[in-house]
Design brief:
By secondary structure, this protein is α+β, with helices and mostly antiparallel strands. Helices cover about 40% and strands about 15% of the residues. The protein contains 15 helices and 15 strands. The chain has an 8-stranded mixed sheet with strand order 1-7-8-9-10-11-12-13. It has a 5-stranded antiparallel sheet with strand order 3-2-4-5-6, with no helix packed on it. The protein has a two-stranded antiparallel sheet with strand order 14-15. The longest helix is centred in the middle third of the chain and has 38 residues.
Length: about 575
């Protein structure tokens, strides 16, 4: 570890009773997915691959290393072994005790994300260390919070308190310490409006490591994600490219987290007037209503001008105010179209309209317009998340089918679905991005997208698209855990031929009867996860039922919007689907 970097981490024994720390929690079958390298007190984490083929390469890479249930993971300090399985996910297992007895461990978190605080420490020290800044990392957090819940990153420019879970509530007005929230930590609407933005952090799996991403979330805007190399620690706090755009679009700055520098001496009034006129002209050219309104306010506050310059500024601001009124009409039209696009599920129009609306001054929005923008942002977030999960699922399916001997011609339609889903997905990790590029090259799709070529009716007969075989839609690690109702294969056994031959030959693919229930369950879960639209619920105020609009001229009642959000939060099924659960 870099000598300029200190770590004041707390050992889990400080908050966990001795007997629980060393393994009184009995019957705990959660699989250990993370460990540390070299020793029990190491701070170098790694994640075990889930698939058996990936584990073979992992073992070769770490052939001369040892794995430990690290103290900084809240573990027992025992040595671990990487276990290889083909019918379930691979995981770490504790080595037996001195007398050959099974070692019991009271470690609370064991999943892929259980070492995220160590990855945050490593990424933060590298990020700030390359800038020549000394940094301290503290895992102590608040009393009673599990280790790894909070990570304090302390640098000469200030401190960041990273909340990876909800165990410790963020404090927004603490001097010199800026909260950074994990994706599961909520933030209320009033805080977003008052502060203009908050920062978030997420970690994406990349091989045996985890990649840190920083996001900037603002009211009625989707969260924008960046790599650490795109971020900076400034006198105002943590800054991303999104922060700079948000600050430039506002007329006043938010309350600064850090002490601000002494203001520069103001220029002469005549020179300032020329600058403002140029800014006003530039803002009109790019149709930025936010900047036009801000410059008009600056012009009105300008004093010490001669008569000709004042007349020129007055004429310019009058023309600008007329332009702003026209833009207000355009904005109202955009909100009306955005509401229609969300109700109709038109993702392309929602994305384009929300981008244009977010370029306007949100301080002039009505409460109803804020609700429309918020609903649109929630809609896009749900679509993006679903597309990202679809990409990961399809890539896993392609890898499984390739290992099963599928040809390139069979895999090309699946890869076309990956490309289509990736266009709507969020920020994909570098591993998924490299996988998409590699498979496109491997299947010959970069040069000629043959799966999209439509044969001419005069030369080829029309062929109906063939449905994908059921066994290609479900990975083996899922159907192998179920009995087969057709050939009576038990859990952990592959299906056998049941055509009365008596040979008991093992099939390359499972029977459809074994796979179909899993596909049906997934469809129900996807339906449960889809956000409720406003007009799918009954309105408490006017009594209008599903598919009927409220009897108002200004859109649906607030109670109806709140009910749709509540149904989404509770993952309530649509009518007629309850019997499928």
């Amino acid at each position: 570890m870099n000598a300029a970097i200190g770590c004041r981490a707390s050992i889990p024994g400080a908050t966990i009773p001795w007997d629980e720390r060393w393994g009184v929690v009995r019957g705990d079958r959660r699989q250990v997915q993370t460990a540390v390298l070299g020793s029990a007190d190491s701070d170098e984490p790694l994640v075990l691959p889930l698939e058996a083929l990936d584990l073979d390469a992992f073992r070769e890479r770490y052939e001369h290393d040892s794995f430990w249930c690290g103290l900084l993971l809240g573990g027992c300090g025992g040595e671990l072994t990487a276990k290889r399985y083909t019918d379930r996910v691979c995981h770490f297992s504790h080595n037996p005790g001195p007398e050959g007895t099974a070692r019991e461990c009271g470690r609370r978190a064991r999943g892929v994300s259980s070492a995220d605080h160590l990855y945050v420490k490593s990424a933060a020290t590298t990020w700030l260390g390359t800038r020549g800044e000394h940094v301290d990392i503290d895992f102590a957090g608040t009393e009673g919070a599990p280790i790894g819940s909070v990570v304090d990153v302390i640098s000469p420019r200030g401190a960041l308190r990273v909340h990876l879970d909800q165990a410790t509530p963020p404090v927004w007005d603490e001097e010199g310490r800026e909260p950074v929230l994990g994706v599961s930590v909520p933030v209320d609407r009033e805080t977003l409006i008052r502060r203009w933005y908050v920062h978030r952090i997420r970690l994406d799996s990349e091989g045996t490591s985890r990649l840190v991403r920083i996001g900037t979330e603002a009211f009625a805007r989707p969260t924008e994600w960046f790599g650490l190399d795109e971020c900076e620690m400034t006198d105002r706090g943590l800054s991303t490219p999104a922060v700079e755009r948000i600050v430039r679009s506002r007329t006043t700055r938010p309350a600064s987290t850090w002490p601000t520098k002494k203001a520069r001496e103001a220029p002469a009034p005549q020179a300032r007037a020329r600058v403002l006129l140029r800014q006003l002209s530039d803002a009109r050219k790019v149709e930025s209503a936010v900047v036009v309104a801000r410059v008009c306010d600056d012009i009105a506050a300008l004093t010490g001008l001669d008569a000709p310059t004042r007349e020129q500024l007055t004429a310019a601001t009058q023309d600008a105010h007329s332009w702003l009124k026209q833009q207000a009409e355009v904005r109202r039209d955009h909100f009306a179209r955005l509401k229609t696009a969300v109700a109709g599920g038109n993702t392309k129009d929602v994305r384009a309209l929300l981008a244009r609306i977010n370029a306007t001054d949100s301080s002039s929005w009505t409460e109803r317009e804020h609700e429309i923008a918020s609903a649109a942002a929630d809609y896009l977030e749900a679509i993006t998340t679903a597309a990202t999960e679809r990409v990961k699922s399809l890539l896993a399916d392609i890898r499984w089918r390739r290992r099963g001997g599928a040809s390139a011609a069979e895999l090309r339609p699946l890869m076309a679905e990956v490309v289509q889903a990736a266009a709507h997905a969020g920020e994909l990790g570098s591993y998924d991005t490299s996988q998409i590029s590699a498979w496109k090259t491997r299947l010959g799709l970069n040069a000629a997208p043959v799966w999209r070529q439509i044969p001419s009716p005069s030369t080829s007969p029309k062929r109906k698209p063939q449905p994908r075989p059921l066994h290609t839609q479900v990975a083996q690690r899922y159907w192998i855990k179920r009995n087969c109702p057709r050939c009576q294969a038990q859990k952990g056994e592959k299906c056998v031929n049941d055509e009365g031959t008596g040979t008991g030959e093992v099939r390359r693919a499972p029977h459809d009867e074994r796979v179909q229930p899993i596909i049906d369950e997934r469809k129900v879960q996807q339906e449960r996860n889809r956000p409720w639209r406003v007009y799918e619920v009954t309105c408490d105020d006017c009594g209008q039922g599903a598919d009927s609009r409220c009897d108002t001229s200004g859109g649906p009642h607030r109670s109806r919007v709140d009910r749709a959000k509540e149904y989404t939060r509770l993952r309530k099924l649509r009518p007629g689907r309850e019997e499928e659960t």
